[in-house]
């Protein structure tokens, strides 16, 4: 079971998704129903921000002085009856730019699913890991958007 917390620091997000908490509550319910019905609670936070903040985070934590689409900050610590996995930061501008070729919500879902999988221990350093992670991303995406 997952529990998603959402922090929004850029008003543009609220123009694209009117009720962000409701949006993620719906995704959380679908995830818990269709993907992981385990009683273990894994919590994480999605930080919806903008390119300038992503550039600062990317520079500080990855030593790359440019914005990026999604960053994951694994923590994995026990809090009461759950495991807090960490934080996922997502850039508004990059999601918005990519949505010109699809839908804003689809691009957002791809980003947070990708970040969540990193928090869960997946990576894509080696090609075989990339393939495995991509399959898992696509599976989760399809389950949440049926």
Structure at a glance:
With 146 residues, this protein is α/β, with parallel strands linked by helices.
Largest sheet: 4 strands, mixed
**Terminal Cα span:** 19 Å
CATH topology: Collagenase (Catalytic Domain)
Please give the count of helices. 6
Task: Please characterize this protein's 3D structure.
- The chain has one domain (about 1-145): Collagenase (Catalytic Domain), CATH 3.40.390.
- Strands 1-2-4-3 form a 4-stranded mixed sheet.
- It is α/β, with parallel strands linked by helices and about 150 residues long.
- The mean pLDDT is about 95.
- Helix 5 (about 105-120) crosses helix 6.
- It contains 6 helices and 4 strands; from the N terminus they run βααβαββααα.
- The two termini are about 20 Å apart.
Question: Secondary-structure blueprint of this entry?
Answer:
Blueprint: E1 2-8, H1 12-16, H2 20-34, E2 41-49, H3 51-62, E3 70-79, E4 82-91, H4 92-98, H5 104-119, H6 127-144
Parallel strand pairs: 1-2, 2-4
Antiparallel strand pairs: 3-4
Helix pairs in contact: 5-6
Key attributes of the depicted protein:
alpha/beta, single chain, four-stranded mixed sheet, 146 residues, Collagenase (Catalytic Domain), 50% helix
């Amino acid at each position: 079971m997952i529990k998603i917390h959402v922090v929004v620091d850029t008003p543009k997000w609220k123009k694209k998704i009117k009720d962000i908490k409701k949006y993620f509550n719906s995704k959380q319910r679908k995830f818990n129903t269709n993907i992981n019905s385990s009683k273990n609670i894994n919590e994480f936070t999605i930080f919806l921000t903008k390119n300038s903040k992503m550039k600062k985070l990317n520079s500080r934590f990855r030593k790359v002085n440019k914005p990026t689409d999604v960053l994951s900050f694994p923590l994995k610590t026990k809090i009461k009856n759950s495991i807090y996995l960490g934080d996922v930061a997502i850039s508004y501008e990059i999601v918005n730019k990519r949505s010109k070729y699809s839908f804003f919500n689809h691009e957002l879902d791809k980003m947070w699913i990708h970040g969540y999988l990193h928090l869960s221990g997946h990576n894509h350093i080696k090609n075989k890991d990339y393939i495995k992670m991509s399959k898992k991303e696509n599976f989760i995406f399809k389950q949440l958007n049926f």
